[in-house]
Request: fold
Amino acid sequence: MSDAARSAGGVSLTLADVREAHARIRPYIHRTPVMTSATLDELAGGQLYFKCENFQKIGAFKARGAHNAVFALTPQEAAHGVATHSSGNHGAAVALAARSRGIPAYVVMPSNVAAVKKEAVARYGAQVTFCEPSLAARERTVEQLLAATHAYFVHPYNDLRVMAGQGTSVLELLEEVPDLDVIVCPVGGGGQIAGVAVAAKGVKPGIRVIGAEPAAADDARRSLQSGTRVMANDPQTIADGLRASLGDLSFALIREHVDDIVTVSEAAIVSAMRRVWEVMKIVIEPSSAVPVAALLEGALPAAGRRIGVILSGGNVDTDRLPWLK
Amino acid sequence: MSDAARSAGGVSLTLADVREAHARIRPYIHRTPVMTSATLDELAGGQLYFKCENFQKIGAFKARGAHNAVFALTPQEAAHGVATHSSGNHGAAVALAARSRGIPAYVVMPSNVAAVKKEAVARYGAQVTFCEPSLAARERTVEQLLAATHAYFVHPYNDLRVMAGQGTSVLELLEEVPDLDVIVCPVGGGGQIAGVAVAAKGVKPGIRVIGAEPAAADDARRSLQSGTRVMANDPQTIADGLRASLGDLSFALIREHVDDIVTVSEAAIVSAMRRVWEVMKIVIEPSSAVPVAALLEGALPAAGRRIGVILSGGNVDTDRLPWLK
Reply:
């Protein structure tokens, strides 16, 4: 066991795991572009390199983790398909990965999920089961589903293979822009930033990895500060991808590898999202705007630094733009 | 004089001019990416390669032509700066090009222009003069301005150097995707498609070049069919970049080099624009959606063909999305 694994409370995730994940998923995912913007550099006062996971398959980084988890299964594990619960991008990612591998996918979604998200999952051929929109109902429905199908459960973030997959974006980013000083990444359940931090520190030990969170959903920041995992309590934020609580595995890795977590207001998120659309001409979802907001509002000082920014996804209901409310 | 120049009524624009323009402007413009989308390929039934001029400097292809025109001036011609009239992207493009060359820029804009467009021009340091929103007032104001400043006039499209610059996008596109069967491009004043057609047929004589126009502003199609330049008469289309009439120079080159012009409905434009935002996660303006609409609605059959699509710009007022009207 490596030093990193020991000190992260026995949770082992290493650069080698992320590299292995990258080799495994490469045929199924996009190598997304890294974009720059002179205007945003000027506004932030530093040099920003945007890793555009909004252009990833299914429109979000979740395709990486899901493909790694699904393709790492043994034939026995995969024999009855895979199952997950999701109200968003992870469901579509598991559905697509299962289709790529040629096995069934079962996705539990809350009955009040937006039609567009249900359609995304169904488009990839997954079987959707609806449940009441509560944690208890979701867990019960998943248990029943697993008992009935014997499918393999792929957690949205608290899963080492999922985290290894999410970290692969950073291998590509650092290949293209090796001399970054900082990487900033949104934090929801913590799966992405855990993988990102392991990969970034593995490739470049001196780099800083910073999480960005809505102030209205700052459970990860409070967890990191207190050293004890604080649970999110139905947080009200427009960044719908960042409402989950940390998992025990993601929290252990974040404590070990993440340098700091900064927070931003809801207004700053909306403003940063709109700014990216208008200046960069790309569509990002509110969760992706959180690290941008941290840079534009000064929560994360950019002056004189070269900063990698993970734009995690671009799935937006274009009928409801937050600045037109 | 080449054969092409002779047969285009003495209007000479050749591949060599476009290559020369490319060498001239390359330090000042972006080499924009070529994007693909499995979902749009499926919807259109062919293979589509999107040249993303929405990511170009000032958010539109106009940066190419303006930089070529401004940097091709002799020191004497450039001594008193450059002037133009524009209610949109060309004004910003001339302003930026003049700033790059270090000479003054004067832009005449209608008094009812959107604040965002005025700001874009002013941001690059141009001096803005407002006029009544009529053709007569515009021409009078430009004449007065030229008399007072002795600036060099750069027409938005009916200018061979501007057209040569606009054609440079196709050199990049065909370098990256050499085996295209067709290139489709929006048609407004005809400057872009003239340059595009000269470049495309120069590099690859067998390629087809198709224009796409709003049915509500189909003056170019009627001009091409009748062989006589038909003027647009205040056309009502959401594609605000495509409301101009052809110039005599652009029309001559279009007759010589463009194979056909197809038209699409306003509803198809809005629907295609939204589809590109949602599927490709990129922001395009209505004018850019016109060729996409032609492919998605069947006006331009795509089956079995490899088609280059010029996405000409991404400057949109995000307060007024056409599908939210």
